[in-house]
Structure formats: structure tokens, C-alpha cells
Amino acid sequence: SCRDVNRSTHSQLNASTESYHGKTKKREDYLEWPEYFMAVAFLSAQRSKDPSSQVGACIVNQENKIVGIGYNGMPNGCNDDLLPWSRSADDRLDTKYPYVCHAELNAIMNKNSADVKDCTMYVALFPCNECAKLIIQAGLKEVVYLSDKYHDTPEMTASRRLLSMAKIECRQFKPKRTEIVIDFSSINCSGMLNCATK
Ligand SMILES: [Zn+2]
């Protein structure tokens, strides 16, 4: 909202203004690191063409720098208009499952650092067993997930077994807010003007 923009503008000015007498407090409702990284994962999921499931993943190093982002989709160079997107069919070859790359795989493969050793993966859904294998072999140390809605499937059970044996910490992210709105028009609100006329 416009009010939020006013406040962020204040804090930027205050930080560089010596004559500040302490009337305006810095923003308190800024995004904390975990919610920022989970939000990046959710934003990248919006790139997915999968009609039934949009999942994003964001890999972060120990300096809180993002080193990989991915979302679920068909492999590079494979025409996603020619491959099936169905969840069920008489023939499994007519479902998406044998073809689609999960967000975790893409985030690891898209890494822009030499490796992802000791990094943390933020991902919307608890990883399946195939992604657990990738997470382990890539040397990640922690998985932060939001939903565990497939908890009782064999894939997730196998995944928990592997991640636990490999001593990869898994924790569920409990968001403080249910949504984060990106409002492109907010940048044009009159925060600066209000501040200058204080
Ligand atoms: Zn997976």
C-alpha cells in the first residue's frame, strides 16, 4: 500500500540523515530472510506451465545469497505443447510424471555458484524421493518447506528416510502472513513528497 511505501522511504532517508531526532521508526514489517526466500520460491512457481501443480524452489548459501532458483517444467528443448500435462491416464506415458522436471532439480541444475554444498533449499512442497536423492548428492544441508500435503505417500516416506539418514535438516516454514502482495503501482505513491515536507 501507499502507507508502506511512505515508511520505507522514511527509513532510507533516516539512515543517511544526521539531523534525525528519532521521531520516525524504521519499518518493522519488512520481509525477514526466510519469508523472503520462500516468497522467491513461490514467485518462480508462477513461471510453471503445469496446470495442476506449480512448485518453486530457491537455494540460498550461508551468506544469505540466492545461488539457484527453479520451478517445475518439461526438460529443456522438449516441446511442452507436445508432452502431456495430465495427472492420470490409462497409459502412464500419457501423464506428465515420466517427463516433468521438479523445481528442486531445476534449482540445483540452474545454480550460479560452483556448487550448492551446505546451502539451504526453500521449496513450496516437501521434496519427493527423487529430489531427496538430488538434494543429498548436491551436498545441501537443509530443506525448508511450506506444505507437506503428500506426507502419506510412499515417495514422501522414502524421501524422509533418505534425508534423515543423510542428516539433512528439514523444517516446515510457518509463515507469519498468509500473503505477500506485489503492487507495481506502489512505487508511484507519494512517499518522498510527504517525507520532504515532514
Ligand atoms: Zn521431486
From TrEMBL:
Keywords: Hydrolase, Metal-binding, Nucleotide biosynthesis, Zinc. The keyword Zinc applies. InterPro entries: APOBEC/CMP_deaminase_Zn-bd, CMP_dCMP_dom, Cytidine_deaminase-like, dCMP_deaminase-rel, Deoxycytidylate_deaminase_dom. Residues 8-19 have a biased composition (Polar residues). GO terms for biological process: nucleotide biosynthetic process. GO terms for cellular component: cytoplasm. The keyword Cell cycle does not apply. Residues 1-21 are annotated as: Disordered. Its EC number is 3.5.4.12. Its cofactor is Zn(2+). Residues 32-163 form the CMP/dCMP-type deaminase domain. It catalyses: dCMP + H2O + H(+) = dUMP + NH4(+); 5-hydroxymethyl-dCMP + H2O + H(+) = 5-hydroxymethyl-dUMP + NH4(+). Pfam families: dCMP_cyt_deam_1 (PF00383). CDD domains: deoxycytidylate_deaminase. GO terms for molecular function: dCMP deaminase activity; zinc ion binding. SUPFAM superfamilies: Cytidine deaminase-like. Catalyzes the deamination of dCMP to dUMP, providing the nucleoside monophosphate substrate for the thymidylate synthase/TYMS. Also, part of a nucleotide salvage pathway that eliminates epigenetically modified 5-hydroxymethyl-dCMP (hmdCMP) in a two-step process entailing deamination to cytotoxic 5-hydroxymethyl-dUMP (hmdUMP), followed by its hydrolysis into 5-hydroxymethyluracil (hmU) and 2-deoxy-D-ribose 5-phosphate (deoxyribosephosphate). Catalyzes the first step in that pathway, the deamination of 5-hydroxymethyl-dCMP (hmdCMP). Belongs to the cytidine and deoxycytidylate deaminase family. PANTHER family: DEOXYCYTIDYLATE DEAMINASE, DEOXYCYTIDYLATE DEAMINASE-RELATED. This is Deoxycytidylate deaminase. It comes from Maylandia zebra (zebra mbuna).
